[in-house]
Structure formats: C-alpha cells, structure tokens
Write a structure and sequence with these properties.
It holds the Pfam family NERD. This is NERD domain-containing protein. The protein is about 30% helix and about 25% strand. With about 325 residues, the protein is of the alpha/beta class. It has two domains: about 5-110, no CATH class; about 170-315, Trna Endonuclease, Chain: A, domain 1. A hairpin with a 5-residue loop joins β3 (about 25-30) and β4 (about 40). The relative contact order is 0.12.
Length: about 325
C-alpha cells in the first residue's frame, strides 16, 4: 500500500501539491510548488509531510487522489477557500531533521475534501498507537483478535459506519445535493458526521452502527437493545447549532433538520411514533426518502449555503480568526 496520496491544485496564480496520509485519510499539508515551501496542517504533521517530500525528492511516485465534485472555487465573501488547513505553519523543505516552523498567512480550509469518517479514523489510529505504547503490540493484537471493547474499537467501528453511510449519501449528489463529511464544529474534538445541502434544505446526519441490534423509536425516545440512548437530544442540538452558524454567514435564515441513520446489518428498526423534527432511517433506505422531500431552497440558495458550509471558519470561527463577511456585512 502506498504511504501517501497527492492532489495537484492550481488556482489564482498558486500551484500546490496536497498530501494525504493513505493510512488515516488525514491531509498532512501541502508543498508550494512555486517556492518549494512545505506547509503542514499543524506542527504535529510537519515531520510526516517532510517524510513525503524526502520520498518524492528521491523519485518515489504516489497515486493521485481523485474526487468527482471537489475542485476548489472562489467563494462568496472575502476569504478564498482552498484545501489548506486553518492554522498553517510554513516549514523549510525536505530534510526531516531540519524542519523549521514559521508563521504563514491564514488560509481557510475547504471541508469538501474531507472523507467520510476521516476524523473518527484518525482518532482510531491515535488510540491504537496509544494502546500499543501502553500495553504492547502483542496484547493490542490479541485484544483486536477477540474484539475487546476498547476506545480504539469504538472509534474504528464508528469510522466504518460513517464511511458506508457516507457512500450512500453521496448518491444524492447527481440530484442537485451537496454533501460534506466529518465537519469539525466548536472548540473541542466534535464533528458532524455528514452535512447535506439540497433543494429540500440543510440536514445534519448522525451515523450510528449497531449490528444486529433492535432499535425502537417513539416521539421522545430511542432505545437500542431496549436501552435508552440520547440520540434524539444530541441530534437536535447538532442541527440547531448548524442552523445558527450557517445563518450567521450566508445572510438569510437557514433551518437545519437532524437525521439519524442506522447501520444495523441483521438488526431491525421499528418506528412506533415519528420524532417529528428528527428523521430516522436505515442506512440502506435513506436515499429515496431524502431525495423525495419537497424543495424549499432555490439552486442559488443551495450554492450560497454550500459555499459557507465548506469553510472551516464557518463552523470554528475562533480557529480561523475573524469570520469571513457575508452578504449582510
């Protein structure tokens, strides 16, 4: 397996090569092909990026990362969106032992390059490394062999669910929808699994993986294996926060609807009473009902909301400095 994937990007007089760690799906930074400078996503990825530069300088070829919808374009407002990280650190090039960090201009990150489950997968890898350091490689391997319930397992299973559900949601794209994955929000480690923007409006999607479980839904509660879970409350909070953040940027009121999508395998989903403001689907049956919802946004409004939603600074304004101005400013 190749250690890295790359993606070429040229726009507005800039020429860059973005680098993704194939093992985790995490973007580690980019090389400015004009100046030769390396710009890691954050200081922790500087050495990984330098490793790529060292291999590339030695003539190692890496596969090109492809995406059907993701060519960066100028956005509404004063900050151009690129696939670059929020807090960039420019470093001098290749030698791994000579990486020197200096401040670089703020460039907003284009979240449309995020993969489904990207944040959860990176967290699973970090938990795996931490467990190996704590109990050793053999005990870690043995734990995975017997499917021990560890933090790494929880994050890994969550990433698997996000990836499969994300692929199902991508089927909406040819029908005028925009889909974002692993959208970071707030000041902590929280993220929204998927954000859908289409003619029927904006939807925040929470992916859940309960293989073989029986899920029971009423208006005020969801039970998994007959145990109550806070999924409705959490989903409503997620949608309300998304609506508030998007409205602050686009210049017109944006409503968001929460969606719960379950990957159940041989399990069952029984909806005795609909929760009303939360849509609940099985992963294999989410596409058709979502596509069939009545339109409430014009194509222009869909584009405007998407341009705001794809910016990291919309969801984490403090991380990106001052929030870009919207039409009302």
């Amino acid at each position: 397996m190749n250690e890295f994937e790359t993606r070429a990007w040229r726009a507005w007089g800039k020429d860059r090569t973005y680098v993704v760690d194939s093992g985790t799906g995490v973007q580690v930074g980019y090389r400015d092909n004009v100046s030769g400078a390396l710009v890691p996503t954050d200081p922790t990825t500087a050495r990984v990026l330098a490793r790529w530069a060292e291999l590339a300088g030695a003539g190692v070829a890496f596969p090109e990362q492809r995406s059907e919808r993701r060519s960066p374009v100028p956005t509404v407002g004063e900050v151009a969106v690129t696939a670059a990280p929020v807090d960039e650190v420019a470093v001098a090039a290749p030698p791994v032992d000579d990486v020197v960090a200096t401040a670089a201009p703020f460039v907003d990150e284009d979240l449309s390059f995020h993969r489904p489950g990207q944040a959860a997968r990176a967290r699973a890898v970090a938990e795996l490394d931490a467990r190996r350091a704590s109990v050793g490689r053999f005990r870690t391997w043995l734990g995975r062999l017997v499917d021990a319930r560890t933090d790494e397992r929880a994050w890994r299973i969550g990433a698997d669910a996000e990836e499969s559900i994300g692929a199902e949601l991508e089927r909406l794209v040819p029908h005028g929808w925009r889909v974002l994955h692993a959208v970071p929000v707030g000041t902590g480690d929280s993220d929204i699994d998927h954000v859908l923007i289409g003619p029927p409006g904006v939807f925040t999607v929470n992916s859940k993986h309960h293989p073989g479980a029986n899920v029971w839904v009423v208006s005020k509660q969801i039970r998994v294996k007959n145990q109550p879970v806070p999924y409705l409350r959490n989903s409503r909070h997620e949608a309300a926060r998304a609506a508030k953040l998007l409205t602050a940027v686009v210049g017109f009121p944006v409503a968001a609807t929460s969606v719960l999508v379950f990957r159940l395998g041989s399990g069952s989903l029984t909806i005795r009473e609909h929760p009303g403001d939360v849509l609940v689907y099985r992963a294999t049956k989410a596409f058709a009902p979502l596509r069939g919802l009545p339109p409430v946004l014009t194509p222009g409004q869909v584009d405007a909301v998407y341009e705001a939603a794809r910016r990291r600074s919309t969801w984490q304004p403090r991380a990106g400095g001052a929030r870009p101005k919207g039409p009302r400013d």
